[in-house]
Specification:
heterodimer, A: 447 residues, mainly beta, six-stranded mixed beta sheet, five-stranded antiparallel beta sheet, 4 helices, 33 strands, 9% helix, globular, disordered N terminus
């Protein structure tokens, strides 16, 4: 990401990465699996001297950060075409590039930008022989799109361009036009605890809530318009729901004991949570329409049941329980009944969530005292450790299931890190100051 | 010197007087403490101004200056070494039923924050149960868990963790 900005700074000298980002992304491992592609800088014609952001560099950084692609540096590109017709397929083929993105931006009315772009498969011929005649063939054109972006949503629109390209090349929906919520802790501040949300690449951080007391467990509503989280503002754990656009904030749960681990059902109508009002930590389901609570688990005194999470079809709840002595993951029907233990590897398994296909779970695994993020296939029970960092916790999946963001300790500070769900790609997300934890990846966002 | 060690020393250096104090109301104290009663009443004539009860209260106040109980990793059992300390707090609380206390439960950062919030509560409840067993009314005790969110030492190492796995007895008002 950094290198890319360096090369493009020839074009956009004033473009500053650090001005509006709190979190950098440093790729540590996995680029050897990445496919070589090129995102040629988009041509710009407009009233303003330059566009609000450099779309091509945002797109290239997104694609690089997915771990699936290795975009070519600008100064190695053999040519700088603007439309697909100008692309010399042979020139790119010689450089080993599989696909090329070209495009242009036109500001037709002030603050309104028309963005057109094309994705070209370098290995499909531009011409073919049909009925003995050489005809132009557009099979090589994988995408040919245009759209309008405003000054305000220009950068987010760039992520949508990256999503379209990612989907065309992988067959999997892109998750760049999403957000990540996280908690920062800076004990030098009057309000050390702050809840933020930023774009998926760390840009545009916006403070949602700040407090003198701890903030925990942020989680998104399925429509991406609100966050539930635990706040200690009244000296104890309580659950709040805050709408990010209107700022409306409601107390959801403040029972005696702990009020913890909120997690929405896929349809957004229910909230699973942990309460200890009846003695020990148990799982409850709150119907958000009727405001009725239903207790889901019944264990003996002193057992901890917590960290509930819905299956993608909404029929199951997986949760952490130490009813067997050590924390392990159990599964229970949302209608209640007996819970079945589903993790058996390692001495501690917690904080589990389903992957979007419902076939695996992502969790925190402790084996021989070491805490790592792992993935377990539900049917086979096979567990694969994904990370090699220290004291990993709070895993949160991208909505397309490709990547996990989590909290870890690096150089004596709590920071965020990311790993692909196949374990190949690893990145660190160091913050400018303080510590960062409790990341929560948003669902797909419509705009 | 660790805070843990300090707590232990305070308990050891407590005058036997305090044990006498415990025995004066507790019905379940054994014959050993009854003997102490005898010793105590004969060794305190130097300060005739203060009654035995006052002296006991002073000793108890001294003992109650220690308000932290430390736990083993991933464990919520109160260690035997803290029984006397909790007895001291219970002695005071049972004599002052209007006094309210908050038992704060804390964890080190290892493990998930949500599990630790529940573990912190379990640690607080362990302390609460012991206080109740020594005659404190449950209505005087409120348990609040902070999980791993309020470390005594925010560093990420073994030494910090041992200071963070704790329950704190905090008197309200």
């Amino acid at each position: 990401m950094k290198l890319l900005f360096k090369t493009l700074s020839l074009y956009f000298v004033s473009l500053s990465v650090s001005a509006n980002v709190d979190i950098d992304i440093i790729i540590e491992e996995g680029m050897n699996f990445a496919r070589p592609i090129a995102v040629v800088p988009f041509e710009y014609k407009g009233i303003a001297e330059r566009p609000p952001h450099d779309i091509a560099s945002v797109v290239a950084a997104d694609l690089r950060r997915s771990g699936r692609f290795n975009p070519m540096p600008y100064n190695e590109m053999p040519e700088h075409p603007v439309t697909h017709k100008e692309v010399n397929l042979e020139a790119w083929k010689k450089k080993g590039i599989e696909a090329v993105v070209v495009g242009k931006v036109e500001e037709l009315t002030p603050g309104q930008f028309t963005v057109s772009y094309q994705l070209i498969d370098v290995f499909k011929p531009k011409q073919k022989i049909e009925d003995g005649e050489l005809v132009t063939n557009q099979d090589y054109l994988l995408l040919n799109r245009s759209g309008v972006a405003s000054q305000q949503n220009y950068r987010f629109y760039s992520h949508q361009v990256a999503d379209a390209i990612y989907e065309a090349l992988t067959g999997e929906r892109g998750a760049f036009a999403t957000r990540i919520a996280y908690v920062t802790v800076d004990r030098t501040l009057v309000q050390p605890f702050q809840l933020y949300m930023a774009d998926s690449d760390g840009f545009n951080p916006q403070r949602i809530f700040s407090s003198k007391e701890a903030i925990m467990s942020p989680t998104w509503t399925p429509d991406g318009r609100a966050l539930a989280y635990v706040s200690f503002e009244n000296g104890r754990s309580e659950i709040y729901l805050q709408h990010i656009y209107t700022g409306q904030r409601d107390m959801i749960a403040a029972f005696p004991g702990i009020n913890s681990a909120p997690e929405f059902s896929p349809d957004g109508k229910k909230l699973a949570l942990t309460l200890s009002k009846d003695g020990n930590a148990e799982i409850y389901i709150l119907d958000l329409t009727t405001r009725q609570y239903r207790r889901l688990t019944y264990t003996t005194a002193n057992v901890i049941d917590t960290e509930p999470s819905f299956s993608p079809d909404g029929r199951w709840i997986i949760f952490t329980s130490d009813r067997g002595g050590r924390p392990q993951i159990y599964r229970v029907s949302v209608n209640g009944g007996n819970a079945e233990r589903i993790t058996f590897e390692g001495e501690y398994n917690a904080s589990a969530t389903y992957t979007p296909d419902g076939k695996s779970i992502i969790l925190v695994n402790r084996t021989n005292g070491v805490y790592h993020i792992a993935i377990q296939d539900i049917e086979t029970g096979i567990l694969q450790v994904l990370t090699d960092t220290m004291l990993d916790e709070s895993p949160s999946l991208a909505p397309n299931g490709s990547m996990v963001i989590y909290a870890t300790i690096h150089n004596g500070r709590q920071v965020l890190a990311a790993v692909s769900t196949d374990g190949r790609f690893k990145a660190r997300l160091p913050a400018k100051r303080g510590e960062v934890k409790a990341p929560a990846w948003s669902p797909f966002l419509l705009n | 010197m660790s805070i843990k060690g300090l707590g232990k020393n305070l308990i050891i250096t407590l005058p036997a007087l305090f044990l006498f104090a415990c025995s004066s109301t507790d019905t379940d104290t054994g014959p050993a403490t009854t003997d102490t009663t005898q010793n105590q009443t004969t060794t305190t004539p130097q300060q005739p101004v203060k009654t035995a009860e006052e002296l006991a209260a002073e000793a108890n106040a001294k003992a109650r200056e220690v308000r932290t109980v430390y736990f083993e990793f991933d464990d919520s059992t109160v260690k035997a070494e803290y029984q006397d300390l909790l007895k001291a707090h219970a002695w005071y609380l049972s004599r002052n039923p209007a006094v309210q206390i908050v038992v704060e439960g804390h964890c080190d950062e290892r493990g998930t924050p949500e599990y630790n919030l529940a573990l912190g509560e379990r640690r607080g409840n362990s302390v609460k149960d012991i206080l109740i067993s020594y005659g404190v009314s449950s209505s005087q005790i409120r348990v609040v868990s902070y999980g791993e969110e309020k470390p005594a030492n925010p560093a990420h190492n073994e030494s910090a963790w041992s200071q963070n796995r704790r329950a704190i007895l905090s008197y309200e008002g």
